[in-house]
Amino acid sequence: MNREVDHIEATRSCRDAKQAGQEPRDKLSATQEYQVDLPRIERAVREILLAVGEDPDREGLRETPARVARMYAELFRGLRLDPRRHLKKVFTEKYDEIVVVKDISFESVCEHHLMPFMGKAHIAYLPGGKVVGLSKLARVVEDVSRRPQVQERMTEVIADLLIEELDAKGVAVVVEAIHTCMTVRGIRKPGAICVTSALRGAFRTNPSTRAEVMTLIYNGRQ
Ligand SMILES: Nc1nc2c(ncn2[C@@H]2O[C@H](COP(=O)(O)OP(=O)(O)OP(=O)(O)O)[C@@H](O)[C@H]2O)c(=O)[nH]1
Ligand SMILES: [Zn+2]
């Protein structure tokens, strides 16, 4: 991605949005919704509607390009966010057992078809003297999920940044998701679930620690 062009487009979009009288609803939405080139997406969506034989000027579709542009700004806002920012505040704690936060719901977009995939992420880490606020693990998932990607990469990106930022002895990330590109089109297999995992540190090298974390993650479900 060309960051400079990106920045110029982001700035232009912000300015266009303001000139059009679309004052951001709050500080968060200003960051999340206007850092993409909304007019450019609108033009592209109008082209798609024309290409499929629709009339983009009929009443029901008139606002659709603008809606879709705002939707992409929301779905891809993670492209401009640094998930590491949630992991800067850590607490010194003697606790040296596994910490698990499971069933963190997420929605992402598959980079092959630009269709949603969604499900749950389970995160575990073995502290190395420091713990992090539990909500921050879910915030990391939230940031990383809002990008076009494949599930494998999403799983690994989360694991890598956690092991680096937390100085943890081990990190395990398991992601379970359904891919709408497999359910509503193509092979059409509703109910198929894709499971990916990324293990780092002790969870990768020590079989009993690995077994323990998997039991904690799947406890009550297997
Ligand atoms: N590994 C991986 N594959 C994915 C993910 N999301 C979607 N896919 C797959 O990406 C593949 C793209 O295959 P292609 O043959 O290039 O595209 P296609 O002709 O639309 O494929 P079909 O879905 O089989 O119709 C498909 O098999 C999808 O199921 C993901 O997160 N990880
Ligand atoms: Zn897909």
From TrEMBL:
One of its GO terms (biological process) is tetrahydrobiopterin biosynthetic process. GO terms for molecular function: GTP binding; GTP cyclohydrolase I activity; zinc ion binding. Zn(2+) binds at C110, H113, C181. It is an enzyme of class 3 (hydrolase). One of its GO terms (cellular component) is cytoplasm. Its EC number is 3.5.4.16. Pathway: Cofactor biosynthesis; 7,8-dihydroneopterin triphosphate biosynthesis; 7,8-dihydroneopterin triphosphate from GTP: step 1/1. Residues 1-28 have a biased composition (Basic and acidic residues). Residues 41-217 form the GTP cyclohydrolase I domain. The keyword Repeat does not apply. It holds the Pfam family GTP_cyclohydroI. It comes from the Bacteria. It catalyses: GTP + H2O = 7,8-dihydroneopterin 3'-triphosphate + formate + H(+). InterPro entries: GTP-CH-I_C/QueF (IPR043133), GTP-CH-I_N (IPR043134), GTP_CycHdrlase_I (IPR001474), GTP_CycHdrlase_I_CS (IPR018234), GTP_CycHdrlase_I_dom (IPR020602). Residues 1-31 are annotated as: Disordered. Keywords: GTP-binding, Hydrolase, Metal-binding, Nucleotide-binding, One-carbon metabolism, Zinc. HAMAP family: FolE. Belongs to the GTP cyclohydrolase I family. This is GTP cyclohydrolase 1.
